[in-house]
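Morning - 5-O-phosphono-beta-D-ribofuranosylamine inputs below, output right after.
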Amino acid sequence: MKKIAIFASGNGSNAEAIIKYFKKKSKIGQVSALLSNKSDAYALQRAKDSGVATYVFKSKEFLDNPSDVINYLEEQEIDLIVLAGYMQLIPKELIKVYRDKIVNIHPALLPKYGGKGMYGMNVHRAVIENKESESGITIHLIDEEYDKGAILFQTRVTIYSTDTAESLAEKVMALEHKHYAEVIEKLLVELE
Ligand code: GRF
């Protein structure tokens, strides 16, 4: 079995969807750990409730010197890192160790609506303000330039004139829950 570590900073609804998918449906992968830079992240509770190991670290220490986190990932023999609502840069040292093995999800169609400040509701507000006719999700690899790694998957949703940032956020979140685990599983197959 390939081993997945999820990094999450907040609510963790994607983390939970991924944990459930791999428990039920996958013969090739399992979620072995959930790591967070926020000790009060609800994602940690979701992991514990599912029997997934958790590891909390401090953002600043991790950015200055990620060796403790890297050691933990190596001890757990993690094959793939999945960012699911992880709100921090990933240090270059970790990107080097897990080259092409760190995947992220972004709630818009990159390269549009990516980069600085483009997270959470900011993304959906910007999309609605610009009167876009569609948005969607992007699942991509992480390299040294955050939102610019190779795109693995995109899917779209139509925006109607009645949509608000909130209604768009709901539609995009549903797409995330539907597709992220499947794309991760395909990536695991490629790693084999
Ligand atoms: C998702 O919209 C994801 O695209 C973004 O952060 C949000 C995380 O939500 N990177 P959750 O913590 O998985 O509920």
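Note: The longest strand covers residues 29-36.

O.
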